[in-house]
Amino acid sequence: MSAASVATAPAFGRFFLPGPTDVHPEVLAAMQRPMIGHRSGAMEQLLGRLEAPLARLFRTSRPVLVGTTSATGFMEMAVRNGVRHRALSLVNGSFSERFANLVRASGKESIRLDVPLGCAVEPDMLRDALRRSPVDAVTLVHSETSTGVLQDVAALAAVVREFDDVVLLVDAVTSLAGSPVETDRWGGAGGLDFVLTGSQKALALPPGLALGVASERMVERAKTLPGRGLYFDLVSFLEATTKHQPTNTPAVSLLFALETQLARIEREGGVEARWRRHDAMRRRVEEWSGQHGVAYLPREQRRSWTVSCLKLPEGKTSKPIVAALKQAGWTIGAGYGSLKESTIRIGHMGDHTVAALDELLALLAGLVA
Ligand SMILES: *Cc1c(COP(=O)(O)O)cnc(C)c1O
């Protein structure tokens, strides 16, 4: 970027795209440090320092894997290492549909349980589907970024546990670090089988890293599966991670950024403090939507804490609203896919604050009226 365009770039805190989200200047600055060798002692120490704060973030006692890939890479890791023959994918939007497509693309049988956009899969529906069609894995998206729906993963995981030898693969890309994700607790003994996220959403890092945790059950299964590939082979990835080694040359600068961001999260009061801030932002949008007669796409109790998907009033479309905000220096998302015109999405995730959200909502009020 030229000096001139840096000078005119909007201030931090106005970029409410539902991913990538705004990255704090302190985190950006961490990426300017000089390189270290990926097989050096410095790298081993860096990965060692990440271990404890990452475990606290994921609420796990298991190793947290960090890969140089977008989140989709770890969705592929989940499928290649978790699905034996056939998976049931809960589909309620674009990212959950991607999980289903990945199952097929990995040469495994895919069964879908589709619900309308804006809805969540409820526990009874999952139980019925699992009774009808035996599978060995279930994929789902916790916070479906395309529709702003938050699924009740604790309840869905409990249903999966009623069935023998079924692993649960969870995309927590816009939930983890923004709303409660209990990797070890949900789903009872052994916890969730694979929980993954990416760097550029609720973690508020630049894009390029994926992070994930696998249960012991999942790792044992992976060892028996052919076709795990190399880059996303869970077994060797885990082995390297426990030795504080990268598998290949990692995005070193992003690891510097990750260490800095983990320290910022701890300074805020840990992941629970972060959940509270996101809960406050979610409530603020709910309050605003009531005041201005702008309806949510998802029903109450099923709304993401990090992305609010709002239905525009009759006669309004997303394009001019998004453009007018852009003109004023603010960025939000239009709807996704078939909802592009009729909805808008505010990505209040990462390091955003209620104060900045208030400013944004005040501007938005003038545009939806
Ligand atoms: C953004 C997103 C992804 C895909 O992330 P990439 O980093 O682009 O691969 C997957 N799932 C959800 C819920 C997302 O929001």
Topology:
Elements: H1 3-8, H2 25-30, H3 41-58, E1 65-68, H4 71-82, E2 86-91, H5 94-105, E3 109-114, H6 123-132, E4 137-141, E5 143-144, E6 149-150, H7 153-160, E7 167-171, E8 194-198, E9 209-214, H8 216-224, H9 234-242, H10 252-268, H11 270-292, E10 295-296, E11 307-311, H12 318-327, E12 333-334, E13 343-347, H13 354-368
Helix pairs in contact: 3-10, 6-7, 10-11, 11-13
Pyridoxal-5'-phosphate is lined by residues 19, 70-72, 95, 141, 145, 171, 173-174, 198, 201.
How would you characterize this protein structure?
The protein is of the alpha/beta class and 369 residues long. The chain folds into two domains: 3-22 and 270-368, Aspartate Aminotransferase, domain 1 (Alpha-Beta Complex), CATH 3.90.1150.10; 25-266, Type I PLP-dependent aspartate aminotransferase-like (Major domain) (Aspartate Aminotransferase, domain 2), CATH 3.40.640. Helices cover 42% and strands 15% of the residues. The protein has 13 helices and 13 strands. The strands form three sheets. It has a seven-stranded mixed beta sheet, with helices on both faces. The protein is globular, with a radius of gyration of 20 Å. The model has no long low-confidence stretch (mean pLDDT 96). Residues 19, 70-72, 95, 141, 145, 171, 173-174, 198, 201 line the site of pyridoxal-5'-phosphate.
